[in-house]
Amino acid sequence: MAEAFFRKFTEGKFNVNSAGTVPSGNLNPVVVEVMKEIGIDMTNQSPKTLSQSMISSSFKTINMGCMDKESCPALFVKDVIDWNIPDPKEKTIEQVREIRDQIKSEVLNFINSIDNEK
C-alpha cells in the first residue's frame, strides 16, 4: 500500500520499492480490495524480498513495523524510519481500511518532509 500511495502522490518523481524480509507469495486480496475502493489498482504489484542492494541504494528506508523480530530491518539498517504499522494479514476489512488510511497519512507526511528538505 505504501508503494502504491507513494507512486500516486509523487507521480513518478521518485523510484520507490516496497519489500519485506519474509514477503507473502501473493498480494493480500483484502488489501487489493480496500485500495481499489479509493481508486488505486494494485493488481500489477507483487510482494518482493528486501535485498541489501535495495537498502544500499535507497535515499530513505522505512519500516512499516516488525512482525518478525528476528529479521526486522530496524536491526540491520542505519537510520531506518519506523512507522510501527500493523500487518494487514488476517485482519478484517475494517481493520485493513484503518491500516490503509494510516499508511496514506504517513506517506503524505513523509512526502511533505522530503519537499521541506529541498
Concise description?
Keywords: Arsenical resistance. It contains four helices and two strands.
In DSSP terms (H or I, runs of 4 or more residues), the helix count works out at 4
What is the name of the CATH superfamily? Answer: Response regulator
Structural class: mainly alpha
Query: Taking all residues together, what is the mean pLDDT?
Result: 85
- How many strand elements? 2
Strand content: under 5%
Major sheet details: 2 strands, parallel
Domain count: the total is 1
Provide the CATH topology.
Rossmann fold
Domain Phosphotyrosine protein phosphatase I: 1-113
Keywords: Arsenical resistance
Protein name: Arsenate reductase
Could you explain how this protein is built, in words?
- Residues 1-113 form the Phosphotyrosine protein phosphatase I domain.
- With 118 residues, this protein is mainly α.
- It has a single domain (2-104), classed as 3-Layer(aba) Sandwich (Rossmann fold).
- It is built from 4 helices and 2 strands, in the order αααββα.
- The chain has helices spanning 2-10, 29-37, 52-56, 93-117, and strands spanning 62-63, 81-82.
- The protein has a two-stranded parallel sheet with strand order 1-2.
Keywords:
Rossmann fold, 118 residues, single chain, 2 strands, 4 helices, 3% strand, two-stranded parallel ribbon, mainly alpha
Indicate the topology.
Elements: H1 2-10, H2 29-37, H3 52-56, E1 62-63, E2 81-82, H4 93-117
Parallel strand pairs: 1-2
Helix pairs in contact: 1-4, 2-4
